[in-house]
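[audit] Reproducing an earlier prediction to check determinism. Same input, same settings, fresh worker. If the tokens differ from the archived copy the diff job will pick it up downstream; this log only records the rerun itself.
[audit] input (388 residues):
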Amino acid sequence: MTEMVYGSVARGAGQPILPRWWRTIDRVSLLCVFLLFAIGLLLGLAASPPLAERNGLAPFHYYNRQVLFGTLAMLVLLAFTMMSPRLVRRLGVIGFAFGFVALALLPFFGTDYGKGAVRWYSLGFGSFQPSEFLKPGFVVTAAWLIAASQEINGPPGRIYSLVLALLTAGILVAQPDLGQAALFLFSWGLLYFVSGGAIAPLFGLLGAVVGAGLVAYRSYEHFARRIDGFLSGQVEPNTQIGYAINAIREGGFFGVGVGEGQVKWSLPDAHTDFIIAVAAEEYGLALVLLILLLFVIITLRALVRLMRERDPFIRLAGTGLIGMFATQALINAGVAVRLLPAKGMTLPFVSYGGSSIIATGIMMGMLLALTRSRPQGEIGDLLIGRRR
């Protein structure tokens, strides 16, 4: 079975690890990730000093922390890319178990930092957000369960994975963190669809999400305010969306100049949720398009490689990871240009945030490990062989 999935070509006993890793890794996607991180550091130089000044800290306090956490994230990413699919699966399941327990204990030991939602653990020197680290673990665990259900006499993995998705989403809604809850349910729906599941349950899940959204609209004032603001025909100039849209408009194609932007002094989340607005104002549409292009390249290259995979677990886990990665980027950019309601979601590898960037490094490291070239032949060869 192992030879069928991973190929029967033996590795050279004395073949060095690093050259083998370099030949099999998707080097273009890896370069795109490092470029995104470099752009994030560039934008952090502009967006973080105003926040530090408001909080009475050294001008580059947040920038230095971004460099520290970002460097750690890149090292973690590289370490994960060298792992086998089996090790990725094991660490993903273990990570999900620890992350789920940490998420469940937030109401008792967590803090909201005055933002009205208990999403973090205070560590003294920083904070820890379990939901960020739960993302890659959940995708890998759900993919493992669904892939196992496709085997002869396999467990009802689709049902088990759905239960995990609903439990996770329920805890997130209670924080409340409706956006992350919807992202987890979307990821499960993507895995279920790719695995060949029936369409009817997906419509049922969509209906449940819409119903939960209506309940949340009537239950949470801040959620209703965001939806009303999004549906309104006018944008208040003194709101975060108003500042962001004005910054994008002022930036034009090439921007107003390095360090000349003003939106970073008005937006409290300019360094995280609205980092695109800072990029658009100071560097113009040109940099924004480059950022989006990098995300598109990473996504398409991952999907192309996964289409050639024979192993169901690798196909499902890889699709789920890249789906969550791309969707988070799409939501962040969509909020900044008012295509989506406001939602506190960072731009992967670009926005400030220790938990976010390290967790994203784990996610991308897992993806690059799963999409490494292996001597297994093309999946089309297997299908042709079955027809014969």
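[audit] rerun output stored. Observation attached for the diff report: The chain has one domain: 21-373.
[audit] end
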